[in-house]
Each structure stands twice: as C-alpha cells, then as structure tokens.
Amino acid sequence: MPGRGATDLGFSEPLIFDRGAPGRCGASLPESDVPAVDAQAAFGAQFRGVAPELPEVSEPEVFRHYVRLSGQNFAIDKGMYPLGSCTMKYNPKVNEWAARLDGFAGLHPCAPEEDSQGALELMFRLERALAEICGMDAVSLHPAAGAQGELAGLMMICAYHGDQGRSPKKVLIPDTAHGTNSASCALNGLETVSFPMGENGIVDPAALAPLVTEDVAAIMLTNPNTVGLFETHLPQVAEMVHAKGGLVYGDGANLNAIMGKARPGDLGIDVMQFNLHKTFTTPHGGGGPGCGPVAYRAHLDPFAPVPVVVRDGDGVYRLDRDRPKTVGRLRSFQGNFGMMVRAYSYIRELGPEGLRQVSELAVLNANYLRARLGELWNVPFDQTCMHEVVINDRHLKETGVTTLDVSKRLIDYGFHPPTMYFPLVVKGAMLVEPTETETRQSLDAFVDAMDAIQEEAKTNSEHVKTAPHHTRLGRLDETRAARQPVLRWQPSNTPMEQ
Ligand SMILES: *Cc1c(COP(=O)(O)O)cnc(C)c1O
Question: Which of 150, 229, 251, when mutated, tests ligand 1's pocket best, judged by the most ligand atoms within 8 Å of its CB?
C-alpha cells in the first residue's frame, strides 16, 4: 500500500497552498465601472491596508482541494458511524431540498413579520410537534446546541426558584452524565452534586433519597442514560425531588431510543433539551449552525427565552418579545432557522408511526450488536439495552491492546470508531450506537471487523497498536492539536504535511 499522502503512483499530492500562481483567478468578474473610493478614509482604522497573502488559484484547483479533503474525512454518507451518545444517523437528503427552497434560504432574518409568515408558521408547527413528541407544554427553538439548551433550561429553573423568593443552589447529577451537564450548572452558578448510579446501571431511589433536600434546585437525568439503559425509577425520583421543591431537568440527547414510546413530560420531567442533530437528522457539528430546542411544562413558561412565536386569533404569526420574566435572548435573530426546516421536514416525512419505528429499530439494532459483540467482547451491563451498548477492552488486557488501539484500527476497516472512554464509569469503555438506519449487513460487517481486530490483538498486537495504517494521517498529537491549533493559513506555516 502506498505511503501516507502519496498517490498510487508514489508521488505526494500537492497541497492547495502549494498550488496556484500570482495572478491566477477563479472568478470572472467584469471590470469595475463605479468610481474608486478612498477606502482608508471610509473605513478608518478598520481598513486593512495590505491585502492578505492568500493563494491565487483557479476554480478547478479550489474544487479539487475541497473534494480531496472531504474524501479524507469520515462521514455517515461513507460508512457506519456508531459514535455512542452522538446519534450519527443518516441525514435524509429531502431535508436539504427543503432547507434550500428560496422562500426559506433567501429570507432575510430582519424581514418584517408580515413577510415571514411561512417561516414563522414552520417554527410554530415544529414547536408544537416537538412538544407533542416529548409530552411538554411548549418549546423554544432558540438555543443553538444541546448544551445551550441545557444552559437555557437551567436558567429557567433558576428564574423559577427566584420568582418564588428561593435560591437553592445544588443540582444532583449521576456519575454517568455527559460533561455538558456540570458545565451548564457552573455557568449558572449552581453547585453540582455527583452521585453514583445504582448497581444495575440506573439511578437507585433509595440511595438517592438522603441527597434530596430543600437546597436542591434540580436533578439532571439523561434517559435512557449514557450506559444505554432506561431509567425505570424516573417517576419516583421526580416525585421525591418535586416534594422538596426542586425541579427535574431531562437531558434529551438520547430521545432517539424512546420517541413514540415514552414521553419525558409524562415521566415527571419539567424541562429538557432536544438535540436536533442527533434525533431529528440535522447535520452534525463542524462548528456549524446547530439547534438545541428547550421544552418545558407550563409553570416554566413565563421564563422562556425571547422571542416566542405566537399565533394570534386571526391566524397571523408574530414574535412576542414582551415577556417581563424571560431569561432573555440566547441567540441572534430567531436562532438557526435552516436547522428548523430540516428537522420539520424529517418529522413530517416520517409522521408519528415512522418516528415510533425509528426508536424501535434503533433499539433492535443496538441489542443485535449487544448479542453479537457479546460473543467475544466484554459487555459490562449485559441486559436488554436501549439504543446503545457499552463494551470494553477487558478481555484484551494480556495483549496490551487498548480501547484506543481498537478504535484506531477500526478506521482501517472502514468504520468510524465508537465513543471511547465514555461513560467514565466503565473502564476502557466503547459506547456503540448503531442507529436505526444501519442494515443487518452493515451491523454484521461491523461485528466481523471488531472480531478480526481482537484476533489481531492476540496474534499481531503491534499492528493494532500502530493503526491506522490506511489513512492520510496516523495518530495525531491530540493534546497539541487542542492546545496549539493552527487555524489560519499563513505563507510561513505551510506545508502542514506530516
Ligand atoms: C450530545 C450530548 C449533549 C450535548 O449536546 P450538544 O448538542 O453536543 O451540545 C448533552 N448530553 C448528552 C447525553 C449528549 O449525548
């Protein structure tokens, strides 16, 4: 196999910044026919003066650059992406068609309400659909991510207590929780009280009881939780917390397991976030625009973020900003509207029956993997799971091969690795979430790859420990990449070849 970064013929691919030549151009604009302005005078100190030293490239060069980069990346459109907790499910292309419709994509966020009726109606309908799915009274589409939805929900909880002249500061969080839960507490000046999950992987109400006191502002629970198990005692736990004046925050990131089956609002949750990029097939990450709506019961309504979309008696939609007890504005304009169009398209494409089937298939696929992987791998909670299953590297101890090595080697087999070393409570965890869109064949191929890797670990561990072998880059210095990222191209810091 050719070396990294080399073509089949053995020579290196040129990088974009080594391409191009002075004066080469990818655009064909006419000569300017308006008088030149004195930019220095017009923009003052903001005027750059010296042009940035960007590479000068032709259109095909730019195109090849980005297509080549996209080919080096892994994507759900290329293969199975069982990254637990992240729900990397297929994003139906009809969503993209809808989001690109001129009336949506071309609408200016400052357009007057009377010219934005269609967009406001879509937001209103999406809010109603999400409220129905989770059994809550209302939804705000404002937050830009799941984590910001958590932040918003906790802000509403603080405002609710404050409105009653109380200021409890403690938030109970199980040790299986996602890191964003405690971060959202910290941003609200709340104190996190971590408690261990019960022996069978779920919250044990008896063990929790002594912690539920009157200075508890809320409990934050993820259901199903991050080891893939349904919190069967949730209603009882909610009752305990409510009895002491606290509220229940539901981390809704794992909704893909229970849609159409169980509604968080019916289980005693007061406020929760959705992660549209997980459950409702809007694109993930890349630092791009996101949407993490927050859903709440009626007693939290006065504190909801503004603006709120309302439908007046005459069927006209408008944005209500006049809400004295609101926690305020979290985002510019109305949030990331394009994501709302995609999620709404998905919900309408599937309908109630389809959404229920999504959860059924997600759970079926995860249990299929649990059973098949369980033949050779260690499954710490070997009971019927929800949409994801935890395995670990325990049986590879003698070989010196770890979860990290297995994950890297999986890339060579054409699979994105599962989530590693999370949840923290399982040593060497791999959190595997296949999602509903994988076929039996792709699930089997994944198990075959995992089994082949554990065989390699026993017979040729060095090969696993030095993986990946088939990617452009090998193991990165992840600490340096995080601490000293090179985010801007400058003539002096190319090439980035390793
Ligand atoms: C993904 C996730 C979050 C955070 O959501 P983002 O949209 O990534 O900000 C919170 N909790 C759990 C359990 C998650 O899986």
Answer: 251
- Domain limits, the chain: 94-348, 360-483
Task: Please give the distance, rounded to the nearest whole angstrom, from the Cα atom of residue 483 to the centre of ligand 1.
Answer: 22
Give the model confidence (pLDDT) of 380-408 as tens digits: 998 999 999 999 999 999 999 999 999 99
Least confident of 8-12, 111-115, 318-322: 8-12
Which of 387, 427, 421 lies closest to 407 in space, CA to CA?
Answer: 421
Rounded to 5 degrees, φ, ψ at 271 are -155, 145
What CATH architecture applies to the domain 94-348?
Answer: 3-Layer(aba) Sandwich (3.40)
Angle CA 371–374–378, to nearest 5: 150
- Report CA(154)–ligand 1 centroid distance (Å): 15
Q: Mean pLDDT lowest for which of 412-426, 449-463, 469-483?
A: 469-483
Q: Give the mutation target among 175, 180, 256, 277 for probing the ligand 1 site: most ligand atoms within 8 A of CB.
A: 180
Residue type, 213: T
> What is the C-alpha separation between 354 and 365, in angstroms, rounded?
16
Distance (Å, whole) CA 238 – CA 39: 62
Q: Give tens-digit pLDDT for 26-84.
A: 888 899 999 988 888 888 988 888 887 788 899 998 898 888 888 888 999 999 999 99
Ligand 1 and 292: CB distance under 6 A: yes
Q: What is the pTM of this model?
A: 0.90
Helices (H), 3-58: 39-43
Q: Domain 360-483 classified CATH 3.40.462.20?
A: no
